[in-house]
Amino acid sequence: xxxxxxxxxxxxxxxxxxxxxxxxxxxxxxxxxxxxxxxxxxxxxxxxxxxxxxxxxxxxxxxxxxxxxxxxxxxxxxxxxxxxxxxxxxxxxxxxxxxxxxxxxxxxxxxxxxxx
Length: 116
Description:
By secondary structure, this protein is mainly α. The chain has 4 helices and 3 strands. It has helices at residues 23-30, 34-42, 60-74, 79-114; strands at 21-22, 49-50, 56-58. Strand 2 and strand 3 (56-58) form a beta hairpin. Helix 3 crosses helix 4. The relative contact order is 0.11. It comes from Catenulispora subtropica. This is MerR family transcriptional regulator. Residues 20-88 form the HTH merR-type domain.
């Protein structure tokens, strides 16, 4: 979770990972049904945190993922395929980020030895 351990309740408003939204509010925000959010949870695309009373709570980050899934489903993609697409997109983005970091690291090492 982002943020420091000594954060105030107001700091949580800026935290993308803070589970601030109830299932009903989350579904309303992305224009879906609670059943759709439950299906995403069953597919393990997003795993909501639970309140002390056991109610599902969603973060802004999870809502962005759910909104992307809804776009794909609305375009005719089956929900299980939509979840897989999003997971693969995320893995590709991470691999590209790591590749860019390695390239920068290698270029920095090469330029340091070129001057020797």
